[in-house]
Amino acid sequence: MDADAIVVGAGLAGLVATAELADAGRRVLLVDQEGAANIGGQAFWSFGGLFLVDSPEQRRMGVRDSLELAWQDWEGTAGFDREREDHWPRRWAREYVEFAAGEKRAWLRSLGMRFFPVVGWAERGGHGATGPGNSVPRFHIVWGTGPGIVEPFARKVRDAVDRGLVTLALRHQVDHLLMTDGAVDGVAGTVLEPSRAARGVPSSRTATGDFELRAPAVVLTSGGIGADPELVRRHWPERLGTPPAKMLTGVPAYVDGRMLDISADAGASLVNRDRMWHYTEGITNFAPVWPAHGIRILPGPSSLWLDATGRRLPVPLYPGFDTLGTLAHLRATGHDHSWFVLTQRIIEKEFALSGSEQNPDLTGKDLRLLAQRVRPGAPGPVEAFKERGVDFVVADTLDDLVSGMNRLTEAPLLEIDQVAREVVARDREIDNPFSKDLQITALRGARSYLGDKLVRVAPPHRLLDPAAGPLIAVKLHVLTRKTLGGIETDLDARVLRPDGSVLPGLYAAGEAAGFGGGGMHGYRALEGTFLGGCLFSGRQAGRAAVANR
Fold it and tell me: What pLDDT, in 10s, does the model give residues 253-268?
């Protein structure tokens, strides 16, 4: 044997699993097809939001949360309905929510992580009490965003390398799992030529040789399929209609899903592959790092959301409320894009861009930059997209705005009378302290939460109020992101065969395992649960592989 364990994938889940193994004194081979620049994987690029329940940060903001309320929200969001394929995902989900309400925060703080004091309220739902969405704010942003989450575990791995416990086998692309007497005991594949490509930039796939590595435990933490639009289309669920002809990509090119079919070839059970999480608020990155690079807008609740023909989206499909419901509705329109219509006053308060790169104040732990969030004007990265992004239109009048919007599409789909009808009707409702418009009721309710009032929700105003201008329109695209199904595992992260038996020697965690069990999020996900799923499942897999149980 070359090591006590092999971990395939150097993203967040892989780093956590490797750190757990090394902490127990095990020798680990950490294998990845990319170079050292990409250690940390997709987590490095993230906004760094984590799902916590009944935290001190929530309580300081006046939020009352509980395990029971969080589990109610999770079940209502996940919509588990498959007797066979949801057995382990449901159990993983319950374990994870208990973790988020229990030791998760203390564990992360022991590693040096700290949290931004204002808790965000993403994926609000807008349905009934048992429907999807968070009943209370739970989106805890780590001070340092994605890099701040990756660094403690990357540091543990580097220290273990120095102690001779961890060996990095980078630029090693796994093509097969090796088996002896029905148990997985190694990996084999292609050694790729060295690459100097920067983080996230596609790297060479030129082969320089082959490799074969053996260990009694193999942990797969190789990610999902979000960078391969053809794979996304292949597994696109019928319930969401036809897949978009044009999509932006929210993850680097190496998120290719290769290990999913490779694990299936070795006998692993893959479940819930038609469950995926793509955003409807994607915008084209004016400075792309990877092909079709898109950024997600994390919107506040005030923008008017119109489909490609200028019709307002129905209740409760407001910005930041129900991602999957919005995606299903927009796919039924027959068009691949939609629109936000808003004002300068709204963009200054309500637009956040998801990603470490687009939040230099939080990522760099820069208090001077952070102070700009409560001052007049949009954050610098948001203003840069407004000025340079191809999906933004700015105008002083509604006529000019609609003309500019039509110039961004192959055919002029918008009529000024239709857009004006929606805008003026909405403005009439906001002129009164009473309203039948549930979006206006929702945004007024949002401002009753101190965090939203301080940094997230603009004071209600008319879109056509000149003092709030100029008018802004944003063309929105589907943005690929997360794979919610994957390799089926038990609560020890042991990979299962299609008949439910354990495939000896093989473990899976992170997005490759649907963040646990083969899909612990069900059909929908509560924001802040992807990184947390990598942390939890990576820890479970590492601890189980220590004993190879």
Answer: 999 999 999 999 999 9
Q: Given CATH 3.50.50.60, say whether it is the number of domain 5-222+484-547.
A: yes
CATH for 278-479, among 3.10.105.10, 3.90.700.10, 1.10.10.60, 1.20.1250.20?
Answer: 3.90.700.10
Strand order in the sheet with 218-220: 166-170, 28-32, 5-8, 218-220, 502-508, 494-496
Domain regions of the chain by residue span: 5-222+484-547, 278-479
Report the alpha-carbon distance of residue 147 to residue 169 in Å, rounded.
Answer: 22
Q: Could you give the CA distance from residue 102 to residue 115 in angstroms, rounded to a whole number?
A: 16
- Name the band, by pLDDT with cuts 50, 70 and 90, for residue 441: very high
Token reading at 477: 């695209």
Find the helix packing angle between 67-78 and 87-101, rounded to 10°.
150
Report the predicted TM-score, pTM, of the whole model to 2 decimal places.
0.96
| Mean per-residue pLDDT, 398-420 | 98
pLDDT band for position 5 (50/70/90)? Answer: very high
Q: CA-CA distance, 258 to 313, in Å (whole number)? A: 37
293 burial via Cβ count (<10 Å: 0-12, 13-18, 19+): buried
The answer to whether the CB of 123 falls within 8 A of the CB of 321 is: yes
CA–CA distance, 335 with 355 (Å, rounded to integer):
27
DSSP reduced 3-state for 72: helix
pLDDT at position 549 is 56
Residue 487 has pLDDT above 90, yes or no: yes
Question: Exposure of 395 by Cβ count < 10 A (0-12 exposed, 13-18 middle, 19+ buried)?
Answer: middle
Is residue 125 within 8 A of residue 133, CB to CB? The reply is yes
